[in-house]
């Protein structure tokens, strides 16, 4: 491959970000034909196709998405440099891209982001995706950090993931306040319907083990993999749920729901996942160092 033409890369970046050749040409003050020619030259130099032409639309290929991730880093860094020079070399805005697992506890995410919101020298972007997409985003440098409730091992992955436990929340049996059950599980629970997490979760596995120990078969009304949705269902259905009480802390404070009992040694764990990078925002290391290992 010939030496990378950053002028061509910049044109590719604007088209990819805007998603429209006409709009990008207008922004860049060039004709559509000239812009298209510049992108074709980049594809020729890279010996790869960056866009698929679908009718009048340009759709990024897999290679195009990876190139876009690098371009985002390159030109974001360039913007930081311009800002640094404009301010006399004294100030620098740290930009952080964070991926969040879909359905992750919003209370945890809010808590994690709290320190970033207090800093005037930090800008961050937040995107929710599935686990596969998040790890791909880390690999392609789309994300600096990923937040999840699933640990990731390096075995068979081909990547040296850095997985750090940053928090955990206790899990409890929660239900309508007016039907609070005082007896230890499973006494008093036989006639109640249950809202449970999906079977692939750590919380569900722990609850299933508890049921097996007591030879108890719950009447499962629904299985839900979204804590925000579980919160609404348990609030409105009159059923009992197994979840971290923090998810329904507002309803508990209002007297609508009550914590019946906690599940011994059962937690929802939260992890921060990174890949080793030559350059990364210092705020990431500072943030992870300041996070509590767990909260009970």
UniProtKB/TrEMBL annotation:
Signal peptide: none annotated. PROSITE patterns: HTH_LYSR. Residues 4-61 form the HTH lysR-type domain. It comes from the Bacteria. Keywords: DNA-binding, Transcription, Transcription regulation. It holds the Pfam family LysR_substrate. Belongs to the LysR transcriptional regulatory family. This is LysR family transcriptional regulator. It comes from Saccharospirillum mangrovi.
């Amino acid at each position: 491959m010939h030496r990378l033409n950053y002028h061509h890369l910049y044109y590719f970046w604007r088209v990819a970000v805007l998603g429209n050749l006409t709009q990008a040409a207008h922004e860049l003050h060039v004709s559509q034909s000239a812009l298209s020619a510049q992108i074709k030259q980049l594809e020729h130099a890279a010996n790869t196709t960056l866009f698929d032409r679908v009718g009048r639309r340009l759709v990024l290929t897999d290679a195009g998405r990876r190139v876009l991730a690098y371009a985002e880093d390159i030109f974001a860094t360039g913007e930081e440099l311009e800002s640094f020079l404009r301010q006399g070399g004294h100030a620098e805005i740290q930009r952080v891209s964070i991926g969040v697992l879909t359905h992750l506890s919003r209370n945890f995410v809010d808590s994690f982001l709290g320190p970033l919101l207090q800093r005037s020298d930090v800008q961050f972007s937040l995107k929710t995706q599935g686990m596969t997409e998040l790890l791909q985003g880390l690999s392609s440098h789309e994300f600096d950090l990923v937040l999840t409730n699933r640990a990731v091992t390096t075995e068979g992955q081909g990547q040296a993931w850095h997985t750090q436990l940053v928090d955990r929340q206790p899990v409890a049996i929660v239900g309508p306040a007016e039907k609070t059950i005082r007896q230890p599980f499973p006494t008093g629970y036989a006639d109640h319907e249950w809202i449970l997490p999906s079977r692939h979760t750590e919380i569900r596995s722990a609850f299933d083990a508890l049921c097996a120990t007591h030879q108890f078969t719950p009447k499962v009304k629904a299985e839900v993999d979204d804590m925000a949705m579980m919160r609404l269902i348990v609030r409105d259905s009159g059923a009992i749920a197994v979840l971290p009480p923090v998810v329904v802390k507002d309803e508990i404070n209002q007297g609508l729901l009550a914590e019946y009992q906690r599940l011994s040694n059962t937690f929802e764990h939260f992890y921060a996942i990174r890949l080793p990078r030559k350059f990364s925002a210092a705020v990431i290391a500072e943030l992870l160092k300041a996070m509590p290992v767990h909260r009970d």
